[in-house]
Amino acid sequence: MTLETKGFDRMTTWIERYRRQAEERYRRLDAVLVAMDDSTTDQDDQERKSS
User: Fold this and answer.
1) Exposure of 14 by Cβ count < 10 A (0-12 exposed, 13-18 middle, 19+ buried)?
2) Is residue 14 left, alpha or beta, with left meaning phi > 0 and alpha meaning psi from -120 to 50?
3) Which of 16, 22, 43, 44 has a CA that sits 20 to 30 A from residue 5's CA?
4) What is the superkingdom listed in this entry's lineage (predicted)?
């Protein structure tokens, strides 16, 4: 029994492409979450100062 390396090469290429896309999405999500956290912290600070 022999394995077709072309099939594995195609699968590897496909998997790598989607892995890179998923990593980019997670980077963008991380940036949004950091911005939300910064925004919440700023609002909390302003509320404490006005009390």
Assistant:
1) exposed
2) alpha
3) 22
4) Bacteria
Q: Measured between alpha carbons, how far apart are the two ends of the chain, in Å?
A: 77
Phi/psi at 15 (5° precision): -60, -45
Written as six digits, the tokens of 1 are 């029994």
- The CA distance from 49 to 40, in Å, is 14
Q: Give me the pLDDT at residue 44, please.
A: 66
pLDDT tens-digit readout, 1-51: 567 888 899 999 999 999 999 999 999 999 999 998 888 776 666 677 776
